[in-house]
Design brief:
Blueprint: H1 2-15, E1 23-25, H2 27-37, H3 39-60, E2 65-74, E3 79-81, E4 84-87, E5 90-103, H4 107-173, H5 179-214, E6 220-222, H6 227-241, H7 249-260, H8 262-282, E7 288-301, E8 310-319, H9 327-393, H10 399-434, H11 437-442
Parallel strand pairs: 1-6
Antiparallel strand pairs: 2-5, 3-4, 5-7, 7-8
Length: 444
């Protein structure tokens, strides 16, 4: 008897499918994964490393270069004159050389300062890449939530139309409706089932796209934003809107973006680098000062008593180019043009950011105003559908009324869900426009 129970138990375990529970991620979890695993972010991080190495290269120019040299010279034969060796069989020479060359204009110091500014620029570029990528992740996250909500609405629609089809078939049997009513109900149900299949595909595609962006390789699911998280996000947004600014809301947002946006900081640093580039290029009109210190030792075979085998000497050179075919003037003119470009670029970015901020703010305000109306529309549509359903049961409404009421309910539910998620994303877009998204995610 015991063996029989064990056999039945094993058989049940074999029949019951194994359910693997996928991990659920909140939006904050996805943010952290994206910053850790994104190739786009890692590329920007490597730009900082490259900038630091460029600074090391610029700093290396300020130090003298120490080099060792050596050579071996063998001649065809030994030559003598009046008993003296004028050409030995071979000569060995080696020694050390210390070289340092600097411009009297201080170009090397300017180049070092430009390299340091390049590091700062790369860090601002990294912040901009991170913010843009976080917004992309948030957009994909809400796309997945929209797809899941659409699948849920499509499932509820199939369930309602199935009940309506069954009710129509029942009434057809008792002769209360014609066969066309049943056929219309079946056609609507088939269309709803088709939408359900499409929505399921949409969920899979949205999940795959999000997994690729964040770097998730296993099955997963996402959590709905908690109500307290939404309230926190709205409060953070309120702090951004008000703050200590005494201007209008849009002007306050623009002022905030001008001081916080990484792209504007990058453009300002680029302008400073362009100014230093002009100074660096003008330094070519100044002479270069070179210092050499050499220790050398020479051995000849055969050697003579009068030869000088060891030398230690220093050389001081001043090089001043007089004519280079207009090269220096062309380089200075090019640097000045690049400075003007950097200035124009900074102003252009400010204008673009200002338009982006105003657009994000207006869209957020519009969605906030529309959201309440859409919620009321869903409630009215649901009440209307329930009322029409009861009327259909008692023969006071026909199938067309049911289908119209159901279509209105499905449309309003989809529009409300999309707008609700778009509103939450619009809050993040406004933070991105003002340059505060990364701080709210990763902290100061």
């Amino acid at each position: 008897m015991g063996r029989k129970l064990i056999y039945i138990f094993c058989l049940i375990l074999a029949i019951i499918p194994y359910n693997s529970y996928s991990e659920e991620y909140s939006l904050d979890d996805l943010y952290k994964l994206a910053l850790e695993r994104s190739e786009t972010v890692k590329i920007a991080e490597e730009d900082i490393f490259i900038s630091e190495k460029q600074k090391d290269k610029a700093k290396a120019v300020l130090f003298p270069a120490l080099s060792a040299f050596g050579n071996h010279t063998r001649y065809t034969d030994k030559k003598t004159a009046s008993g003296r060796v004028v050409q030995p069989e071979f000569t060995n020479e080696w020694g050390l050389r210390l070289d340092q060359s600097l411009s009297l204009s201080g170009r090397e110091i300017t180049a070092l300062r430009m390299a340091e500014e390049g590091i700062t620029k790369s860090r601002f570029d990294l912040d901009a890449v991170r913010e843009e990528y976080l917004l992309k992740v948030a957009s994909l996250y809400y796309d997945l939530l929209k797809s899941k909500k659409a699948h849920e609405i499509a499932g509820a629609n199939v369930e309602r139309l199935t009940k309506h089809k069954n009710a129509a078939e029942t009434r057809l049997k008792v002769g209360e409706v014609t066969k066309t009513v049943v056929l219309r109900a079946k056609a609507e149900l088939a269309g709803a089932q088709s939408e359900l299949i499409k929505s399921e595909h949409g969920v899979r595609l949205s999940k795959t796209t999000l997994a690729r962006a964040v770097g998730i390789h296993d099955d997963f699911d996402v959590k709905e934003p908690l109500e307290k998280d939404l309230e926190t996000s709205k409060q953070e947004l309120l702090d951004v809107l008000i703050g200590d600014c005494r201007l209008s809301t849009v002007d306050c947002l623009k002022e905030k973006s001008f001081s916080e946006r990484s792209e504007i900081k990058t453009a300002a640093i680029q302008k400073q680098i362009a100014q230093d580039e002009v100074k660096y290029t003008k330094g070519s009109y100044w002479p270069d000062l070179s210092i050499e210190g050499v220790y050398s030792r020479q051995e000849n075979e055969p050697s003579t008593a009068s030869e000088l085998n060891e030398r230690i000497y220093g050389v001081l050179k001043l090089n001043f180019p007089l004519f280079e075919g207009g090269l220096r003037a062309a380089e200075v003119g090019e640097a000045k043009a690049q400075l003007r470009q950097a200035d124009y670029s900074l102003e252009n970015i400010k204008h673009s950011v200002g338009v982006e901020v105003e657009d994000s703010y207006l869209k957020l305000q519009t969605m906030s105003a529309v959201l309440d109306q859409l919620q009321a529309e869903v409630e009215y549509a649901l009440d209307n559908y329930n009322a029409v359903t009861k009327q259909f049961q008692y023969g006071l409404a026909d199938s067309i009324d049911i289908i119209d009421a159901n279509t209105l309910l499905v449309t309003s539910e989809r529009e409300f869900a999309n707008t609700e998620y778009d509103y939450q994303l619009a809050i993040l877009k406004l933070k991105r426009s003002t340059g505060t998204l990364l701080k709210t995610v990763a902290g100061p």
